[in-house]
Write a structure and sequence with these properties.
The chain is an alpha+beta fold. It is built from three helices and eleven strands. A seven-stranded antiparallel beta sheet has the order 3-2-6-9-10-5-4. About 30% of the residues are buried. The model has no long low-confidence stretch (mean pLDDT about 95). The chain binds flavin mononucleotide (FMN).
Length: about 160
């Protein structure tokens, strides 16, 4: 039987080895300020209707805004946006300072990302120290490009086809 510490390490190392795209979730707080955080837990939920799923930690300073706002944004970062990824995974006071962004009605939209999805919050399931947030896709844009990739605690990978 493995010890809880070993199991926790196995979990962390396994998740670090799960290759994923990198997203920034954004929404508006009650005081009308923008907030956002980096998340790799974004995935498709259903195709009909088109909806996405993500998991938000309860300690995130964005948690209550995401849990209460009607809308939120999902931005898939491009390969040259690692600096933006570090800003949105940090605890700096104003993550939007110096970032190119604008309001899409009530959702902060970051410029130049591969994808921006405007989502309407449909469900929130609280469990343990995270909540699963599901949103229906109601708008957005897709410009394409090479994605930023997270793998083995690094984001400076470049994708190349094998042939
Ligand atoms: C690679 C990576 C992936 C992350 N994925 C998630 C995630 O899916 N959900 C989450 O709540 N936090 C995730 N985080 C942590 C948040 O980005 C981080 O805690 C952030 O500082 C929260 O900022 P906030 O308190 O301003 O919301 C991730 C961090 C990194 C570095």
């Amino acid at each position: 039987m493995s010890s809880p510490a070993t199991v926790s390490e196995l979990f962390r190392d396994t998740m670090a080895g799960l290759c994923s795209g990198v997203a920034v979730l954004t929404t508006r707080r009650n005081d009308a300020s923008p907030c956002g955080l980096l998340a790799t837990s974004v995935s498709a939920f259903s195709a009909t209707p088109p909806s996405v799923l993500t998991s938000i930690g309860h300690t995130s300073r964005c948690y209550h805004a995401l849990a209460e706002s009607e809308h939120f944004g999902v931005h898939i970062l491009r390969a040259d946006q690692e600096r933006l990824a570090h800003v949105f995974s940090s605890l700096v006071e104003d993550k939007f300072d110096g970032v190119d962004w604008s309001w899409d009605a009530d959702v902060p939209e970051l410029a130049d990302t591969i994808v921006y999805l405007r989502c309407r919050r449909e469900a929130l399931f609280e469990l343990y120290d995270h909540s699963v947030l599901i949103g229906d896709l109601i708008g957005g844009r897709r410009d394409g490009g090479e994605p930023l990739v997270y793998f083995e605690r690094r984001m400076d990978w470049r994708l190349e086809p094998a042939s």
